[in-house]
Design brief:
The complex is a heterodimer. By secondary structure, chain A is mainly β. Chain A has no helices and eleven strands. In chain B, strands 2, 4, 5, 6, 9, 10 and 11 form a seven-stranded mixed β-sheet that branches. Chain B has a four-stranded antiparallel β-sheet with strand order 1-3-8-7, with no helix packed on it. Chain B is globular. In chain B, a hairpin with a 3-residue loop joins β4 and β5. In chain B, 0% of the residues lie in helices and 51% in strands. Chain B has strands spanning 4-7, 10-13, 19-25, 31-38, 42-51, 54-57, 65-66, 76-78, 87-94, 102-103, 107-111. Classes of the chains: A mainly beta, B mainly beta. The interface between A and B is medium-sized, with 24 and 25 residues.
Chain lengths: 116, 112
């Protein structure tokens, strides 16, 4: 069964500090991995996508990494801001069947709180 | 502006009273789906649609119905809501299911 596990479940940091969120997956065959940011009470918004051949990708202060061998991804946030307080969700897509929609596996998310 | 619109934003109802949550997208996406989000469980897929008149069950379809008569609309129907369907619901659309998904703002449903 495909699974995506995220850690930590919650994290509290001070404004200006860096942090790293983890995502481990057992989805096979792997297609891509996305990180979404979900503000409280809002729908998730895509931050970045990682494909099999990519190791690192940045989007402003967000940097995602992917190790396809160990099936791990991380999201590093640099110089955190109060607006970074949100849930960060890892979503892995399998390449089982290009016509199948049942190939997205969602993690439970990491709740990040940035304090002033 | 590209968006997915859900209505209503908040809904309180009583057990057994049929309700519909609407979802509309203006991006001409083929793929649309519904999720529920409960504390500690993350997003779970209820139903999805690959195109007009093509729908299929997700992981937690019991107690829900959907229809896709037009490309832009994908309503979620609860024929006889029960308290265990109290949850935060999200509609999403994408050009393909494995491409970037665009989510609506959510519908907080409470069934008393």
């Amino acid at each position: 069964k495909n699974q995506v596990e995220q850690s930590p479940q919650s994290l509290i940091i001070l404004e200006g500090k860096n942090c790293t969120l983890q995502c481990n997956y057992t989805v096979s065959p792997f297609s891509n991995l996305r990180w979404y940011k979900q503000d409280t009470g809002r729908g998730p918004v895509s931050l970045t996508i990682m494909t099999f051949s990519e190791n690192t990708k940045s989007n402003g202060r967000y940097t995602a990494t992917l190790d396809a061998d160990t099936k791990q991804s991380s999201l590093h946030i640099t110089a955190s801001q109060l607006s970074d307080s949100a849930s960060y969700i890892c979503v892995v897509s399998s390449a089982l069947n290009s016509g199948s929609a049942r190939q997205l596996t969602f993690g439970s998310g990491t709740q990040l709180t940035v304090l002033p | 502006e590209a968006q997915v619109t859900q209505n209503p934003r908040y809904l309180i109802t009583v057990t057994g009273k049929k309700l519909t949550v609407t979802c509309s997208q203006n991006m001409n996406h083929e793929y649309m789906s519904w999720y529920r989000q409960d504390p500690g469980l993350g997003l779970r897929q209820i139903y999805y649609s690959m195109n007009v008149e093509v729908t299929d069950k997700g992981d937690v379809p019991e107690g829900y119905k959907v229809s896709r008569k037009e490309k832009r609309n994908f309503p979620l129907i609860l024929e006889s809501p029960s308290p265990n369907q109290t949850s935060l619901y999200f509609c999403a659309s994408g050009s393909k299911p494995y491409e970037k998904l665009f989510f609506g703002s959510g519908t907080q449903l409470s069934v008393l």
